[in-house]
Design a protein that fits this description.
Blueprint lengths: L3 H10 L6 E2 L10 H13 L4 E4 L2 E3 L2 E3 L3 E3 L3 H12 L3 E3 L1 H7 L9 E6 L4 E5 L2 E7 L10 H13 L6 H11 L4 H8 L4 H13 L1
Parallel strand pairs: 7-9
Antiparallel strand pairs: 1-3, 2-3, 4-5, 6-7, 8-9
Length: about 200
């Protein structure tokens, strides 16, 4: 019978480079403690990189840039997939996703219907904040981001350039999704979202 290290290494070698890995991916290979120890041995051998406690990376390597780190969004989405939870980024992260900001926040907050938690990634942190089902009920991912971005910008601080950008990103969303999702937003944000329909 193969050792647990060999079993885990064999499975990892079949993964695509850049995959985010959790101990739970190897539940059939042995006890929780044995799996964690095997993963840490693979970190020492540079097969894996440890991103945070219980979160590992099968690194993607570039000849010029070296190891390519996953984005915060990729890590957060991998955690959400593992936990079978829904998430949506808030604040600056939502603005970044829409091209409304180039700021790099040190603390990123995601609303979730999963367990609340904070994960430290070097100098940056990801916080999963429990929210109501309404905040995760949007039909469109883009509409979700627009709602969260406008919340942080504030009703009286939205610039025309930002409105133009929002109008462009919403232009490809279906009428059904726009109408549905605008009803989940504060009235002033819903009004901005529906302006897209008038301009089409």
């Amino acid at each position: 019978m193969e050792s647990i290290d060999k079993q885990i290494y064999t499975k990892i070698s079949r993964f695509k480079r850049g995959k985010i890995i959790f101990p739970e991916d190897f539940m059939l290979s042995g006890s929780q403690d044995a799996i964690r120890q095997a993963l840490h041995r693979l970190v020492k051998k540079s097969v894996l990189t440890r991103l945070a406690p219980g979160i590992f990376l099968y690194p993607k390597l570039d000849k010029e840039l070296g190891m390519l780190n996953p984005s915060i969004d990729e890590i957060a989405n991998a955690i959400a997939k593992r936990d079978k939870a829904r998430i949506v980024p808030t604040g600056i992260q939502a603005m970044n996703s829409l091209g409304l900001s180039t700021q790099v926040p040190m603390k990123i907050v995601y609303l979730t219907d999963g367990a609340p938690r904070t994960i430290k990634l070097g100098k940056r942190t990801i916080k999963f904040k429990k929210t109501t089902p309404k905040n995760l009920a949007a039909k469109s991912r883009v509409c979700e981001l627009v709602i969260q971005a406008l919340r942080i910008i504030g009703r009286n601080n939205v610039t025309q350039n930002q409105l133009n950008r929002i109008n462009r990103v919403l232009a490809n969303e279906s009428q059904d999704a726009l109408i549905h999702d605008s009803r989940l937003a504060p009235a002033w944000i819903g009004k901005i979202m529906l302006e897209t329909l008038k301009s089409e």
